[in-house]
Design goal:
Structural class: mainly beta
Low-confidence stretches: 4-16, 253-343
Radius of gyration: 25 Å
Helix content: under 10%
Strand order of the largest sheet: 1-2-3-4-5-6-7-8-9
Order of helices and strands: HEHEEEEEEEEEEEE
Oligomer: single chain
Shape: elongated
Distance between the termini: 94 Å
Number of strands: 13
Strand content: 5-15%
Mean pLDDT: 73
Largest sheet: 9 strands, parallel
């Protein structure tokens, strides 16, 4: 016997009933109204009205990439998706973040690179599920203390800003594995970084650092510290025994023998106008047992022979990539060294 009452079926739009621009995007991106991921990077012709139509047709979105769409400064409808887990807003002239963004508490990945940000509000601390946060290539001068209380953060990218200091609260980022700070104007690092027990990669290239905090000795898993482009002359004694696996660039201020014998040292040009005394070049070879870089002096090159040290590590061979977890960004680590010998 047939039931007396049947629940009405949910109406599903046929493909031909969708607006023409939606049909085009659905075909190109292989989407359906049940899709939970949408990548609109490159769709620069879409306006606010078209985007609002797409949001309405895709109620199950969890992963959204709108990189380089020239979004309006406050695309409010976009931030009404309370269950979005991955959001890429990079290369959009946002200028500042709308308050609705801080309500997306399920976010695990947030890319705000190249969005013309000049400040981050303290409300960033509400995004407690973030694993990856990219704030690179903006105009940030300071950071809120609340950023240091994102307890699940694994990767934090802050390259290419104008940061002069870091909040002491960064010492609370207990799960942080990768911290990228290249190309800022940092003059010192907070001692609290020594509390980051899971930190593995610390990129400090092209800042104004003259020293490193000795508390970094407590970062038991730290295996890579990049310091190229800093007026860094020496390491604190506490760090020298730990620098075996770090990629360091120390300006020539003392003999090589004063450093740990296994430290990978690159002699950078001095800033003074006078020509520096020639330093014995160093060739990087790879130990067959543990692949630890070993500094080995070689004869000084003649004028007719090129120096065995390339200008940049990446030019010395194919880049190595670190194997990361699924929620982290693959990062170029160091050029593969080659064996150098006198001919």
């Amino acid at each position: 016997m047939a039931p007396l009452f049947r629940a009405p079926k949910k109406k599903t739009l046929a493909h031909s009933e969708l607006p023409h621009f939606v049909q085009r995007i659905f075909l190109r991106r292989r989407l359906s109204t049940d899709s939970d991921a949408l990548d609109l990077s490159g769709e620069e012709s879409l306006g606010t009205a078209e985007l609002d139509t797409l949001w309405a047709l895709l109620p199950n979105l969890r992963v959204l990439c709108v990189r380089g769409l020239r979004l309006p400064r406050r695309p409010n409808a976009l931030f009404e998706r309370a269950h979005v887990r991955e959001l890429d807003l990079s290369d959009n002239p946002l200028g500042q973040l709308p308050a609705q963004l801080y309500g997306l508490t399920t976010l695990g990945y947030l890319n705000l690179a190249s969005t013309q940000l000049q400040a981050i509000a303290a409300e960033i601390g509400t995004l407690q599920n973030l694993h990856v946060l990219d704030l690179s290539d903006n105009a940030l001068v300071t950071l809120p203390d609340a950023l240091g209380f994102l307890g699940e953060l694994r990767t934090l990218r802050l390259e290419d800003n104008a940061l002069r200091e870091l909040p002491a609260s960064f010492g609370h980022l207990g799960q942080l594995k990768q911290l990228f700070l290249a190309r800022n104007v940092l003059q010192a690092l907070p001692a609290q970084l020594g509390a980051l027990k899971n930190l593995r990669i610390l990129n400090l290239q092209n800042n104004q650092l003259r020293s490193l905090p000795p508390q970094l000795q407590h970062c038991a898993r730290l295996s890579q510290v990049k310091t190229d482009g800093n007026p860094l002359f020496e390491l604190p004694p506490q760090l020298q025994p730990l620098a075996v696996h770090w990629q360091l660039s120390l300006r020539q201020a003392q003999p090589v023998a004063a450093l740990n014998e296994h430290t990978d040292v690159q002699f950078l040009p001095q800033l003074s106008g006078a020509a520096p005394a020639p330093a014995p070049p160093v060739s990087a070879t790879l130990s067959a047992s543990d692949a630890t870089p070993i500094a080995t002096p070689v004869a000084a090159p003649t004028a007719a022979r090129r120096s065995p040290l390339p200008a940049a590590p990446e030019a010395d061979g194919a880049p190595l990539l670190i194997a990361l977890h699924h929620d982290e960004v693959p990062t170029r680590v160091v050029g593969r060294p080659r064996s150098l010998s006198k001919k």
